[in-house]
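To fix ideas, we reproduce below one chain and its tokenised fold.
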Amino acid sequence: MALVVTFAGKAPLGVPGVDSSLQVWSYTVAGSPPDLIPGQRIAIALPADVDVRDPASYPTVPALRGMFLERSAAISRQYAGRTIAPGGGQQTIAFVAPPGQADRELFVVTAQGGRPWAVQPFATAAGGTPDNVQTMASPARASGTGSGRPVGEFAGTLPYASEVFGVYQPLAGWFGNDASLRVATALGLEPRMERAAFAGDAARDLTHPALAELAAQDPPTDGILSPVGLVNLFRQYFFEFDTFLGPPAGHLWLSPGGTVEVVETSTRRTLVERTAEQSEESTRRSEESLTSQDDVADAVKEENANDTKLGASVSAGGKFAGIYHADASASFSTENTTKRSSEETHKHTRTQSSKVSSEIKRNFRTTFKTVTETTDTTSRRYVVQNTTSKLLNYELRRKMRKVGVQVQHIGTQLSWQVFLGAGTARPPAPGVPPRAVVAPGRLLGLGELVHVVPAPDLTSLREPVKPPRLERKEVNYTCVFNIQMFPIANNNPPHNDAFWSRIDENTGRMGRGEEDEYIVGNLQVKPSPPAPGYTLDPNTALIRFISCKSANGSDTAFDAHYSIDGTDPAAITIKCDHVSFGGTGAVTLVHSLTWNPPNVDPAQREYDAAKKLYDEQVAELQRKAYGEAVRTRLGLVSGIRPRPAAELREEERQAVFASLIKQLRLIPSDPHLESEIIRQIFDVDQMLYFVAPDFWRPDYVSDPAGPDTSGRYPVPQPVWTTTAADPLAGETVLSWYSHTGFDKTPPSAPPPPAPGEPPTPPPTPTQQKEWRVNYLITEGTQPAPMGSSLGWLIQADGDERRNEFLNAAWVKAVLPVRPRHELEALAWLAKANVEGEAGLGRPYPWQTGDPEEYRGKKVGEVLTLLAKELEAKNRDLTVTLATEKVFETGFDPLDGGFRPALPYQVFDQWIEVLPTDQVVAVEVEYDPKTGQQL
């Protein structure tokens, strides 16, 4: 006899809450004993698109007891069934599904002894025709968006990723001498605050006058002065749950015989969000969303690595762990501090996870087009064809991921906190003056970008040729000296063959010994200059006689002296003393004359004008070339890839520890031994350091800019104007560019006049200069690093945390105590030359939730009890195993999603839904009358 399966109906689930609308679906299965074997499993195979819930999630519903739900991804079916009860007979199969009903194809399967499912023929009524598949009333296809299976079905799932972080809380009450001396210096108490004041009964009870005054400060400084605190460590687990179809991303309809080609383009991009807020101050903020990550675990890790509010720690394996800073705690109870830390953790992790998840949700943008774009990063092509005779509709729905997140407390560590930064180090010995110390960030060097700038191309310009320098010239001058009868009475014509001599200096008359025969002995000439602007040298001693020839070309005797008339400096008077005309009427005289160059050379003026034009053209080319070089350098600097965060944190940790050793100087003669002692007690590899330059620096990073300020990073001069000895001067770029400039602001308004007085005349319209350090950007550069407009020291290959570390005046270092060394660490810290014992003798302020054994104790006694408790827990192997339980047993659903944190327990749980870049085409039907989806 074949099986007979009938639909028994639906009944309300009867569970309050979000599942109150679900119903219990029941089917009866009847058959003879050979068909229904006790202990055999029997199930109804439902389509995979039916929203069926696991009956195990509703243990209070009687009709669901003994029922199960299995899913098979291989054949897209899900099996709702039960194990056949002893005695056989009619069986009832029940499951939970939405109330929507439709006729669907179902089949029945059985399995026994761990064997695979086997399809069994069945009928839908007594006497009906058996078949492997029957059409029966069934839950309708799930419409809208789903949310996947209940969380309880994923119990035992192992985490695919984890992230360790923590919360640090100082323990108020102990006055460490390191921080106390710094505060005392700031308050003017240092002359009465000596290291000896931190030891003895007066220190333990704070009865020492200086310590008492320090303890009475308002606001209280207990949290800052305390040298110890607790670090509560937490681990965040990420579990991969199932996938489901999300909201529709598109719609397709195909007519009978129609074909549609669908191109799915998935684009990943980095979303930059800019917001502007206008108020009394103008604020512009740019935030780069973490949309480069596909997974919430990777996004959380990246945000932790870039979060500047975290304390940084680098373990021996190089793993980065973020530590958050909480308020100081007056309670030393590990349970109280764990609860407070868990609250801080709950708020931060939920906010962080929601933030990065929402950003990931915006990460995928899918466009369906009929063409393929060449810029697509991922492209899929589908051909959808309708071979039926009816209209088909498809919804294109995105595939969603469900990720579970849990948070577990994994341990508590006692820690030592030390402030490092500007100030003075501890004196190495009595009577030895202290030495100044600097912030740890000053110990780190900066990378320099080497960028060689070629000289500008000047081949298109023609440089004018400089004219030669004008010099004095000696030029021969030729003139003719004719025989002329001297104009006096009774004078006869002269003989041309006689030898004539001067007989009268004043008149220049010459004679040959006869009283009636005289000639003119003076000859005035005006030679032409050898070049324009030249003038005759007035020194007659420079006039040289060269030759005297008669008209027939023979040499004749000639002797003379010369004078230059001051009224005409270009005229020369030749005063002949002796001459012979050689039987001719004239002689030709040749003299060498000296000419002085002009004061201003006309050619030089032309050259200067041409050279000025040439220099202007060269300067224009240099300005363009240098401007382009600066633009190129800005692009190179802004495009430098930051170094890995783990390497930067490791360098900073080394700098902090080196600064700590230099500042403490507990063993001045051997700092290496001091380092080993610290490493023996404290876990230096897990050292934390908190940096907040906007808080720890009480003054400007540098002096306010003024007219003489060159800027923290001035643009280097071009190489062709650099005369420095450094061969790379002008060719290197240190971090980022900046220069000093000023903005003009209008003058202030005059004060209002007093009653009965005339109004104050407006001020003279002058402008005041407001200096500031500006930085350079171009339209192609990345946004400048934070702190550029503050004049910060910027490291080109560093991240924001490194820049804050470089510019911070103070760093708070937190050294966790090595497990099982807690008592040893307290004893070492209480030494007078370390932190002393100030405040350890005060009564401990018992808090609600503290252990009863803390009541009536001193601060030091409670610290000892706390150290013993931590030491015992660190020696307990069960505690260690509890912190690794999740990796062994997997996901354990947390009832309610959150509970007050207990040590080493999972206390927080939530679900994140993430989209994928996959889209699924789902066939849908619509009621033509109502238009609603069936």
User: Anything to note?
Assistant: The CA atoms of residues 42 and 83 lie 6 Å apart.
